[in-house]
Design brief:
The protein is of the alpha+beta class. It has a single domain, classed as 2-Layer Sandwich (Heat Shock Protein 90). It is built from four helices and five strands. The protein starts with 7 loop residues before the first strand and ends in a 7-residue tail after the last strand.
Length: 142
């Protein structure tokens, strides 16, 4: 299944800063995007969404359910836009931009994943909000 030029999906949610909330939002996205995206594009979209939200929960909000994470997502005309914001103090994304996590590392891959799987990533100056753009490509038919 390919992405139609007319396809459109928009999701908005302010959620508690918990991994359960992230998972629920990602599962909802998976179900709602099935008719819009082929499996390869859906995988990369879900990976970007999950990584951005998990980073906001883990690093920005310290998994405090009393804090909020905001997510805005849109698929339109072969393009995914994800905006995630937390209310933490942020981080120095400029310093982390070119980092590559070593194979045995359990963390430190977030910025690298966003960089490699997206078409464009932009953080705000403070480092507590990110906008991710993914341009989808058609899957070649055999």
């Amino acid at each position: 299944m390919t992405l139609s030029a007319r396809a459109d999906l928009e999701m908005r949610q302010d959620m508690p800063a918990t991994f359960e909330s992230v998972e629920q939002f990602v599962v909802d996205f998976r179900e709602r995007s099935k008719a819009l995206l082929d499996p390869k594009n859906r995988f990369s979209a879900e990976l970007l969404l999950r990584e951005a939200l998990a980073n906001a929960v883990r690093h920005g909000s310290h998994a405090d359910p009393n804090k909020q994470v905001r997510c805005r997502l849109r698929i339109k005309r072969r393009r995914l836009l994800i905006a995630v914001e937390d209310y933490g103090c942020g981080f120095d994304w400029r310093r982390a931009w070119d980092n590559q996590a070593g194979a045995p590392e359990c963390s430190g891959r977030g910025v690298e994943i966003l960089r490699k799987y997206s078409s464009h990533v932009r953080y705000n100056d403070r480092g507590n909000a990110v906008i991710i753009v993914k341009r989808f490509v058609e899957e070649k038919q055999p």
